[in-house]
Amino acid sequence: MPTSAPIDKHTEFARCFESNKISTFSPFHWLALALKDIARAPVLSLIYGLIFTLIPATIMWLVYQSGTHLVILPAVVAFALIGPAFAAGLYDVAWELEKGHTPTFTHSLKSMFRNPAGEWGFAVLLMVIMIVWMRLAALIHALYPNVTNPTFEQLSAFLTLGTLVGGILMVSVFAISAFTPQIMMERRVDIMTAVVTSIHAVKSNVGAMLVWCGIIVTLVLVGFLTGTAGFIVIMPLLSYASWHGYIAIIKTKKPRGYE
């Protein structure tokens, strides 16, 4: 009987692209470049900004109309599925501008199907993580004191566990999603290669990623404080800046001719 070939224990199941080391405050430079992109493609930025703004606005409206927070989960899951696709459209706009081309809405729409398996797989991955978080949140909520006005001491277990679990999930999602969509759109690689590369890039630039995370949280809060109207500008700004961050950090075999 023929013998089976020995298994190579060093087989690489997912590649990892090399990353550049960047300065801690580089994300502010990405924002400056993103503002220039918005000025160069104002109409496309406005279209995508309106699309993204409708999503959080709809979630807030559903919560207000229904009087319950149960609608948040299906709404957020829907956003997780369609969000990365529209973000890919904005990445394409920034990419076209970087190459000196004139971006078009049609071209940006086609980018959503450049790597459909990877992009939808990533959307499903985010959806699964969100569902896991909602289930964990329900379990943690069982620790909430059954009194009308609980003291901080009574809330300590609930707050500590909730903060710990939520923080771990937030860090995990950020590391996974920081550069994964951009990698899959430009290079059409498998989802595992993109995810591993994104995690490695975040680990290699912890300082800059902390600054970038702080910027994202701050701008998202501003978006909600403005009744979601601010997202018209914030979402294109963050998407363009994310693309410039990807260009600055993820290495290519041939040096890029643009920033």
UniProtKB/TrEMBL annotation:
It holds the Pfam family DUF2189. This is Cytochrome B6. The keyword tRNA processing does not apply. The keyword Zinc-finger does not apply. Keywords: Membrane, Transmembrane, Transmembrane helix. InterPro entries: DUF2189 (IPR018692). The chain crosses the membrane at residues 43-64, 70-91, 120-144, 156-179, 206-225, 231-250.
